[in-house]
Design brief:
Layout lengths: L3 E6 L8 E6 L7 H11 L3 E9 L2 E7 L4 E2 L3 H15 L2 E7 L2 E9 L5 E6 L4 E4 L2 H12 L13 E4 L3 E6 L3 H5 L5 H11 L1 E11 L2 E8 L4 E4 L3 H13 L8 E6 L7 E8 L2 E12 L2
Parallel strand pairs: 2-3, 4-6, 11-12, 13-15
Antiparallel strand pairs: 1-2, 1-17, 3-4, 4-5, 6-7, 7-8, 8-17, 9-10, 10-11, 12-13, 13-14, 15-16, 16-17
Helix pairs in contact: 2-6, 3-5
């Protein structure tokens, strides 16, 4: 009861991906106790599951600083941990952002992949004066560092993320920002991450996600931002229904991660797939 597991998501090796804490039965824990566990672990998020019925769970996510409505990588980590114990199939998670079904599958070698269906995705253009310029200043970027083919938006698939396209792979790789300044902007505007990306091709992207609200400089893999970003691309008309998107994240910080996203025909939600492995 209340055992704290440690997994890293969107990778097949313990040295890659994004670490997350997982508590598979948190029914006896208070919010204050969950926050304390998350803070002690120091990961960007920890997932706490409250079983309600067979393969049905209420789930809460805590960063080191606060509760968050939805977290993709902790969902993948928790679902793989569940799959190792209860086997393949669908589990249904009730999050603050809405219902999130997760399909758990195992290949012949026993490797488990979890595919979550995000809350509905939406996006809107970002304000140049009130949102984009202050963030560029905190990043130490100029307007010339952005790719005009991808307009700045605030995208959501469970929580808000500012989406900015880097003009080059080199610009994306060279990230050294003002943590306090960006953190204040994000806190004031209610953003979870700033999703910085560079397009290698129409369906392959490289991304970095500064995450001051979670108390960390950068997230190595961000499933919620990946879902929001996929919805953003679809709204821009850059993805067809059923298109599959590959996102490489964490490479520049030494924790390579692989996220696979797909749109759903006739549905604003997004599927996000990944693996996870225990951290010893």
């Amino acid at each position: 009861m209340n055992e704290v597991l440690r997994y890293t998501a969107f990778t097949t090796t313990p040295t890659g991906g994004n670490p997350a804490g997982v508590v598979l039965d948190a029914r006896e824990l208070s919010d204050a106790e969950m926050l304390a566990i998350a803070a002690e672990l120091g990961y960007s998020e920890t997932a706490f599951l409250h079983p309600t019925d067979e393969r049905q769970y209420r789930i809460q996510y805590f960063s080191s600083l606060a509760e968050v409505a939805f977290c993709g990588h902790a969902t993948i980590a928790a679902s793989v941990a569940l799959g190792e114990r209860i086997g393949p199939g669908t589990v249904n998670l009730a999050t603050q952002a809405g219902p999130v079904p997760v399909e758990i599958a195992a290949d012949p070698a026993g490797e488990i992949t979890a595919t979550l269906t995000s809350p509905p995705a939406s996006t809107r253009p970002a304000s140049e004066e009130e949102e984009v310029r202050p963030v560029l200043a905190a990043l130490g970027w100029s307007a010339d560092d952005l790719d005009p083919a991808y307009p700045a938006h605030v995208a959501n698939a469970g929580n808000d993320h500012l989406v900015l396209a880097a003009a080059s792979r080199g610009r994306l790789a060279d990230l050294d920002y003002d943590f306090e300044a960006l953190g204040k902007i994000m806190a004031d505007l209610g953003w979870t991450t700033v999703h910085l990306f560079w397009p290698e091709s129409p369906t392959v992207f490289h991304a970095r996600d500064p995450f001051p609200p979670g108390g960390v400089v950068e997230d190595p893999a961000t499933g919620a931002a990946a879902a929001a970003f996929t919805g953003y691309l679809r709204t821009l008309g850059r993805l067809e229904d059923g298109a599959v998107l590959t996102i490489h994240q964490g490479v520049d910080m030494g924790r390579p991660s692989l996220l696979t996203c797909s749109t759903i025909p006739g549905d604003s939600r997004v599927k996000v797939s990944g693996t996870a492995v225990p951290i010893q």
